[in-house]
What we know:
Layout: E1 4-9, E2 18-28, E3 42-50, E4 52-56, E5 61-64, E6 68-72, E7 78-81, E8 88-96, H1 98-105, E9 113-116, H2 123-131, H3 137-154, H4 164-174, H5 183-189, H6 194-205, H7 209-227, H8 232-239, H9 244-255, H10 259-265
Antiparallel strand pairs: 1-2, 2-8, 3-6, 3-8, 4-5, 4-7, 6-9
Helix pairs in contact: 2-3, 4-7, 7-8, 7-9, 8-9
Amino acid sequence: MMGLRILVSDAPPTRLGQLMLAGEVLDVEPPMPRSLRTLTGWVLSYVTAGTGSYRHADGRVDPIGPGSLTIVPPGLPHTYGTERGRSWTELFAVFSGPLFDGLETLGVLVGDGPRVLSTPPRAAALRTVLSAVPRSRALAEHQLMALADWLIDTTEPPAAGVDPAVTAACELLTADPAARVALPEVAAAVGLPYDTFRRRFTAEVGQSPLAYRNAHRLRSAATLLRMTGMTVREIAERLGYADEFHLSRRFRAHFGVPPRTYRQQR
């Protein structure tokens, strides 16, 4: 199916759990059944574009829109999707295990159905986590812990007094690590003059917009080194660096060791 990309299928079972399925729907009608379905694992759906709805077992219907995060516990009848012939863009995953049962106990995974978060979660960060194809049980456990970290971040309340323009800029700066980003365009998108944007961002975040974006790209590289068997060249291509040598220089300046040493140490 055009527009449906499976990222992970049946990752290795581990002590922490298993990522049973992960993928991405890209501007197409999601391939969901019209009738209710029941799965044995937790379901995660994060919609970044388009609209649809979620149907509960009792017949209630909740709207889904851009920025909606839907979590469904194991064994709960449900379905969700767009109207027939309509499309959306979505990251999804099905996972299970004691790590996520613990998150339920702690109140991180609660209820079912969509919710729109006051601070939208990072779609790029979730895509990085779900795109890592684990080649060992240890790497699969790292992937599950990274997914748990992302889920925990979705329950973190926004810091008091944080400028919404700065929050929106952070999302724009990290949405696609490989894309070219023009800072004046980011400033315009959040409704600020460029000089005002740069001063306000630096004051609230503690880094300039460019430094913040560069640090995010390098953290993404570190995640891929820990969680996947991708080569440094493949990671450089994924994250938009000119070549593996450019990435290696930046990585060593940031982390103090070259990428291969970082991978060996972890």
